[in-house]
Amino acid sequence: MTLTTATPRLVQALSAEHRGRLMAIAREVDFPQETRLFNEGRRADRFWIIRSGTVALDLSVPGRRAAVVERLGFGELVGWSWLFRPYIWQLGATAESPVRAHEFDATAVRAMCVDDPEFGREVGQWVGKVLAHRLHSTRVRLLDLYAPYGSGSTV
After folding, report:
1. Could you tell me if residue 2 is inside a domain?
2. Do residues 82 and 47 touch, judged by C-beta distance below 8 A?
3. Does residue 154 lie in a domain region?
4. pLDDT (tens digit, 9 = 90+) per residue, 17-33?
5. Domain extent for 60
6. How many structural domains is the chain composed of?
7. Predicted structure pTM score
8. Which of 10, 83, 85, 103 has the fewest CB atoms nearer than 10 Å to its CB?
9. Is residue 134's pLDDT more than 90?
10. What CATH number does the domain containing 89 carry?
11. Are 47 and 101 in contact (CB under 8 A)?
12. What does the alpha-carbon distance between residue 32 and residue 115 come to, in Å, rounded to a whole number?
């Protein structure tokens, strides 16, 4: 499994004005290798954009070890569950290498989306595209791991 390049990055998803507003509330954080960023089923109250390093997204599989469904790298969004009620992580995430990232408070960003509908529309479209990509990646990965003939995907 390689790093994904199909999901829209922040620079592609938001106008310069909206990107600037979002980055104005960013906080720089570092995660050592093997740090658990979040666990499936827990409260989603923040998200990150990777500056360097690799984050593995995983899904709990009953009776088995968690399945890594995607790896994320530079410029990619880590976390989408913060935008949609009930704000519960649908996947888990671990730093596979030391990670430097911009961290965002989900409550603050959701408030910005309400206060500026155009900003909210751009953020919603960006996160929605990421979500659609993650759903597809998860499906393909689980079929590759557990279906008798794999996913049949060459993507």
Report:
1. no
2. yes
3. no
4. 999 999 999 999 999 99
5. 10-145
6. 1
7. 0.85
8. 85
9. no
10. 2.60.120.10
11. no
12. 35
